Amino acid sequence: MEPVEALSTAAQLALALAGFAGVVVVFRSSAVHEWAPMDKLRLRLLLSNSVFPLALCLLAMWLLSVKPPPEWIWRGCSGLSVAFFFPFGVFTAKAMRAVPRDDLRMGGSFKLVFYPVGMLGAAVIVLQIYNLIVLNVFWAFFALIVFQLLAGTFQFVRLIILAS
Questions:
Q1: Distance between CA atoms of 128 and 80, rounded to whole angstroms?
Q2: DSSP code string of 124-159
Q3: How many domains, the chain?
Q4: What confidence tens digit (pLDDT) does each residue in 84-138 have?
Q5: How high is the pLDDT of residue 48?
Q6: Both ends of the chain: CA-CA distance in Å?
Q7: Can you give the residue range of the structural domain that contains 55?
Q8: Cβ distance 76 to 64 under 8 Å?
Q9: What is the DSSP string of 6-38?
């Protein structure tokens, strides 16, 4: 699959995932401001994991539209993704620590989910840095987009399954 096709498909998935967030909000029995802090965090993660990949896909498609495409295209995209994703990871960790312990216990086995996903996210960031410095290849940049879409899908499923 060519990068433009993969990016276009990922952008469509990201947009659909953002739309699913609206579905979650509409079908909940209470307003968002009445949700438990953990559910609000899950909604933020769902939205973030759909908006960031969409923005990165659009940026990469824009750069690919330049003729000839810049030689540094995947380095630049990986650098920008680190600039977006690293603060997002820090924010998520801080937000998770701000959730009351009782809400975390009610959310099920959050440690079995949060830490492996966080470690995988850190590995993807390291891959982006390696792509920025050494590789300059599409697949390494696209790994971050795939990771975020999968994480967003996972948050959507958790919001549906764990709905109170």
A1: 9
A2: HHHHHHHIIIII--HHHHHHHHHHHHHHHHHHHHHH
A3: 1
A4: 988 888 888 888 888 777 766 655 566 677 788 889 999 999 999 999 999 999 9
A5: 92
A6: 41
A7: 3-161
A8: no
A9: HHHHHHHHHHHHHHHHHHHHHHSSS-GGGS-HH
- What is the spatial distance between Cα 94 and Cα 85, in angstroms, rounded to a whole number? 14
Q: How many residues make up the chain in this entry? A: 164
Residue indicated by tokens 């499923």: 157
- CA separation for the pair 68, 3 (Å, rounded): 15
Q: Which two tokens stand for residue 21?
A: 């967030």
The tokens describing 141, both together, are 């940049």
User: Nearest-CA neighbor of 14 among 52, 43, 40?
Assistant: 52
User: pLDDT category, 160, cuts 50, 70, 90?
Assistant: confident
Of 100, 107, 9, 89, the closest CA to residue 49 belongs to 89
